[in-house]
Design goal:
single chain, mainly alpha, about 65% helix, Integrase, about 0% strand
Length: about 150
């Protein structure tokens, strides 16, 4: 049987740690490109919702809760929600784990932001060369704990 890899390293690509990324490719260098743009809402409106129609009111409420949590966290860090560092991600995961189980943290929150960053990474309209959630799962304990729930699902 051919199982998908379970380690975040197997999914991260060429950059295995934040320190491996040359400064010119780090997401924070693109701040001006994202100022005033609600990239996460655009992703949901243009990509996620059309692919999952019909979207129930319950699903929209769940997504709004995640988006609000992520955007507020990133605003508190003085960073745009599309330009996270692995440290930003891990601090968010630490907060999630204070009031949620690893299962809820993963299924209700982490995977939605993880998929958002995968979209940014795959899109030619965005400069993302890495997913900071993967790097956080490699480098930090709280994010790795949340990642481990993903592994249990496989």
């Amino acid at each position: 049987m051919n199982r998908k890899p379970t380690s975040p390293e197997a999914h991260a690509g060429i950059f295995q740690e934040y320190g491996d990324i040359p400064a010119r490719y780090r997401l924070e260098t693109y701040t001006q490109h994202y100022d005033g743009v609600d990239t996460l809402q655009r992703y949901y409106d243009e990509v996620y919702y059309p692919a999952h129609e019909p979207v129930s009111d319950w699903m929209e409420e769940q997504i709004d809760r995640v988006a609000t949590s992520w955007k507020n966290h990133m605003a508190d860090r003085n960073r745009h929600h599309a330009l996270a560092t692995p440290e930003d991600v891990d601090l968010w995961c630490q907060d999630l784990l204070e009031f949620c189980s690893p299962k809820t943290s993963y299924k209700s929150y982490f995977r939605r932001i993880y998929n958002f960053y995968n979209y940014l990474q795959d899109s030619h309209q965005h400069p993302h060369l890495y997913n900071p959630l993967l790097l956080a799962a490699i480098e930090y304990d709280a994010t790795y704990r949340v990642w481990q729930y993903r592994v249990k699902l496989r």
